[in-house]
Specification:
five-stranded parallel β-sheet; 15% strand; Rossmann fold; 348 residues
Length: 348
C-alpha cells in the first residue's frame, strides 16, 4: 500500500452522486488516517460534505468560467497531490487532473457500454445490482481501501439542527403518531410519479394514521409542492400536509428528514438525502432502473417499479416526456401499491 500524503477526490455533481461518495471518503480516511484528503465539488452541492470530519477541506467550483478553472488547476498543481481520484470523469475533471503532477490517478469505471445496451436495446448485462457508492470504492481497491458496510452519511452541525428544530417545532410534531416525508419532484418528467397520486396517497395515509406530511422540494418546486399540500388538506379535511419546498437549504433538509418516520420519494436527490439519514424509504422508479446503481443504499427500503414495462429504461437520467406517449412505467404504479409498501416497512 503506497504512502499517500495528499489525496484529492473530484466529483462536481450532481447531488445524489456527491452523497454517494460519502462511503469512499470515510473508507479512504480509515486506510490513510494521516493523509490530507480534499474534495472538489460544485459550490451548490458543497453543504452535504462541508461538515464531513473525514475531509481536510472542500474545494468549490463556483462557475464554468475559464479563469476559475485555470485558477483551480494551478492551485491543485501547486498543492502537489500524490493521488487524484476522479469519480466524475467529465471533460472538466479530465482537464483539471491532466498536468496536476499526481503520481497516482484513478478514474471511475462508469459501465457506459452496459448502460447504452440497456437503454438503446433493452439488453441487461449488469448482473447483480451494484450501488454507485460501491463502484466508487471499487476504484481505489488496489490502494487498500475496503468497504466498511456503513452506508451513506451526511453530517449536520448542531447550529443547523437548532434552526430546523425551531422551524419544525411550529408544526407541533409531538402531537402526531408519525410524520411522513414526500419527495414528489424530480428534474425530469419521467422520474415523477403523478402529482394526483401523491395527493391520493396523502389523503389515504391521513385516514390510517394520525400523521403529519412534509412535502420537500427546491425553490423551483414551490408551486408544484404547494398544490399537492393544498389538495391533500382539502380532501383530508384538516391541515395535515405542510409545504417545505424552497424553505430549507440542503443541509437543513437533511435535519428536517430526521423528524420523519418514513419517506416516499421519486428517484431523486431527496431519496439520497433520506438514505444518508438512515430513513425508511419507499422509492418510486419510472424510467430509471436499479441496475444504474442509484437505489436506496443500506437503509430499509422498498423500490416500486414496473419491470413488465419493456421500454424501461428509456434514459439513465430521465426525460422531459415519455417517448412512447403512454407513461405506463409511472401510471401503473397505484396508490395501493405505495400504501402496502409503507405499511410493510412500518411493521419491520
Amino acid at each position: 500500500m503506497p504512502d499517500l500524503k495528499k489525496i484529492l477526490i473530484i466529483r462536481f455533481s450532481s447531488l445524489g452522486d456527491v452523497i454517494l461518495a460519502s462511503p469512499l471518503i470515510r473508507t479512504l480516511r480509515a486506510a490513510y488516517p494521516n493523509a490530507q484528503i480534499d474534495f472538489l465539488v460544485k459550490s451548490q452541492y458543497a453543504d452535504v460534505i462541508r461538515f464531513n470530519p473525514h475531509l481536510n477541506s472542500v474545494i468549490t467550483l463556483k462557475s464554468s468560467d475559464r479563469k476559475e478553472l485555470c485558477f483551480l488547476k494551478k492551485m491543485i498543481r501547486h498543492t502537489g497531490y500524490d493521488f487524484i481520484i476522479d469519480i466524475h470523469n467529465s471533460l472538466r475533471s479530465r482537464w483539471i487532473r491532466w498536468g496536476a503532477g499526481a503520481v497516482h490517478v484513478k478514474i471511475i469505471r462508469k459501465r457506459i457500454f452496459k448502460r447504452l445496451l440497456y437503454v438503446l436495446f433493452g439488453l441487461n448485462f449488469y448482473g447483480n445490482v451494484t450501488s454507485v457508492a460501491e463502484r466508487y470504492i471499487e476504484t481505489v481497491r488496489k490502494f487498500g481501501v475496503r468497504d466498511d458496510g456503513g452506508g451513506l452519511e451526511i453530517f449536520v452541525p448542531e447550529e443547523t439542527k437548532s434552526t430546523v428544530n425551531a422551524i419544525i417545532g411550529k408544526f407541533k410534531p409531538e402531537q402526531f403518531e408519525i410524520i411522513f416525508g414526500f419527495g414528489p419532484t424530480a428534474r425530469h418528467y419521467t422520474k415523477r410519479w403523478l402529482p394526483e397520486r401523491f395527493v391520493e396517497l396523502g389523503v389515504e395515509l391521513s385516514k390510517r394514521y394520525r400523521c403529519k406530511i412534509f412535502i420537500f422540494g427546491g425553490k423551483e418546486d414551490i408551486d408544484y409542492c404547494s398544490d399537492i399540500a393544498q389538495m391533500i388538506n382539502a380532501h383530508a379535511g384538516y391541515s395535515c400536509a405542510e409545504n417545505l419546498a424552497g424553505r430549507l437549504t440542503l443541509i437543513e433538509t437533511s435535519a428536517a428528514l430526521d423528524f420523519c418516520g418514513l419517506i416516499v420519494s421519486n428517484d431523486t436527490a431527496l431519496m439520497h438525502l433520506a438514505t444518508a439519514r438512515k430513513k425508511k424509504i419507499v422509492a418510486i422508479f419510472g424510467s430509471s432502473v436499479k441496475e444504474f446503481g442509484f437505489s436506496p443504499y443500506r437503509t430499509s427500503n422498498i423500490v416500486l417499479e414496473r419491470n413488465d414495462v419493456k421500454c424501461r429504461p428509456c434514459s439513465h437520467i430521465g426525460r422531459d416526456r415519455c417517448p412512447k406517449k403512454h407513461f405506463r412505467c409511472m401510471k401503473e404504479i397505484q396508490v395501493k401499491d405505495v400504501v402496502n409498501a409503507v405499511e410493510e416497512l412500518l411493521q419491520k
